[in-house]
Fold this protein.
Amino acid sequence: MTKYNKIVLASLVLALASTGLAQEAGAAGDETYRGLRALGAGLALGLGAVGTGIAQARIGSSLVGAVAEDPSKAGSLLLYFLIPETLVIFGFLALFILN
């Protein structure tokens, strides 16, 4: 991921977070907190899934290269491919805890 992509992603996240705070001053209450919880749950699941996709793309290409050289290591290397999937599981956990 280039530096430009990181800046664009960070500005997008901040823009989405600021829309959750752009409410009338008199409307503060449970609605504000419910909206921010939903925003946090969406970010937890979405960013966890994006991170998992990036990690598995890199690990998967390396896994295919290693298995092409030595097919007997396929089972043990598959474990390394499955480890980033726990990020999505933690995102689902945060989603259900926040909602």
